[in-house]
Amino acid sequence: MTSSAPQHPRPAGDHPRLWSVDEHLADVLATVRPLEPIELQLLDAQGCVLVEDVTVPVALPPFDNSSMDGYAVRTADVQGASEEFPAVLTVIGDVAAGSGELPTVGPGQAARIMTGAPLPPGAEAVVPVEWTDGGAGGGAAAGMSPASAAPEGAAGEVRVHRAAEARAHVRARGSDVQAGDLALAAGTVLGPPQIALLAAIGRGAVRVRPRPRVVVLSTGSELVQPGETLAAGTIYDSNSFALAAAARDAGAIAYRVGAVADDADSLRATIEDQLIRADLLVTTGGVSVGAYDVVKEALTSVSGGGDDELEGRATIDFRKVAMQPGKPQGFGTIGPDHTPLLALPGNPVSSYVSFELFVRPAIRALMGLPESEVSRPSVRAVLKADKALASPAGRRQFLRGTYDAATGTVSPVGGSGSHLIAALAHADSLMVVPEDVTSVEPGTEVEVVLLG
After folding, report:
1. Taking Cα atoms as reference points, which of 321, 301, 318 lies closest to residue 310?
2. What residue ranges of the chain have pLDDT lower than 70?
């Protein structure tokens, strides 16, 4: 089950009051529950949250090994060595990475050794090949002769031009982690370095909360898919692409559904089809008070009962939130598993801002992330602008901006219109103007939500 049923009843249709941004977000997060843990292979677990502490079964590295290509030697044999008076040692063979049987290095002897190869018995240090003649006579070597040249390259004599202290260029067993150490704690998000550590200690699979599956649907008969020809009165569908990309950025597996026409029956049928692969449904468009606001029409009728297949399995509330852009919002659960559904407005900026404020936190909560990592981070910055910014009374406004961390300033990008996609594309932050503020003068400190 992807979520629990709502903790309080929501009447169908419009809610009589104006919800605050914080109230609406709290309502969303109160309904969403982390997904049940499953065991996944390492690469499939990338981006997921670990639900178990992982301890180290064996030391890493599991044996003393060389950090350089060179020669494994006894320190007494190279004491005082110099280019004028090199230590001349007998080369007894090669030690390559993955070697099983190892030669024993005795007095006056050396073994060619490769990076990562185990330190052979008797050896106390490794001298880099650049400190020797490489077994070829003459001055300092730039590298070793290839193994295919053996036995010539792995036998004979080598002249060592510098002394080495004990354990020089040797990676000690357990110098990374010891057996029994905590490798990764529950709650860790598995990125490439964490996957590498799990593989290095021999873990082929781990228990994690899976990445949420998010289905994004755009609605509107005017929408045309990019690459197709625009007819009169049509526009390209950008919202479904923006929100699917944003869902992936948040850590989800996103499925984008092509635009659904303004027909309630078609939308209900599409939602019914998509439930099988959705931990979260996101619609965009059709949630206001227009005659063709199909999402509101379709889901209000489902919530209120009828002869639809989803009858009795949906509780969707359409409400007004005290924010700009993005005042009309819909939220609830649908289907037998009470799958969360967030219905966002259709204007591109309204849709994206709503995603950042409400959908992204829902996705992160489904992943099982701690509360501190659910929403985007915010900072305080000084407004850098040519004139004061106006904001409607009683609304929390979110304006696009560019944040300069070096100077601690933020500058507006574009205007406040909810259709300005180009301005959104050049913004890296949202400037927050509180509900009780109607004008922000240049030089004023404001809250800035960082989008990058």
Report:
1. 301
2. 1-16, 138, 147-155, 288-293, 301-312, 415-419
Confirm if 268 and 284 have CB atoms less than 8 A apart. no
Sequence-separated (6 or more) residues with CB below 8 Å from residue 293: 285, 286, 287
Cα separation values, 259 from 98, 238, 269, 283, Å: 56, 10, 13, 10
Q: Are the beta carbons of 160 and 71 closer than 8 angstroms?
A: yes
d(CA 286, CA 231): 21
Considering Cα of 198, then 199, then 205, then 209, what sign does the dihedral take? Answer: positive
**Other CB atoms within 10 A of residue 52 CB:** 15
Q: Which amino acid is at 43?
A: L
Residues 129 and 144 sit within 8 Å (Cβ to Cβ): yes
Helix spans in 34-136 (H): 75-78
Look-up of token digits 């490489």: 134
Given this model, what pLDDT does residue 302 score?
60
SS3 76: helix
Cis omega (within 30 of 0) for bond into 151 = yes
C-alpha span between 256 and 291 (Å, rounded): 26
84 Cβ contact list (under 8 Å, min separation 6): none
CA angle 244, 9, 279 (to 5 degrees): 25
How confident is the model at residue 66, as a pLDDT?
97
Could you tell me which of 353, 206, 362 has the C-alpha nearest to residue 280? 362
Q: Which residues pair with 6 in a beta bridge?
A: none
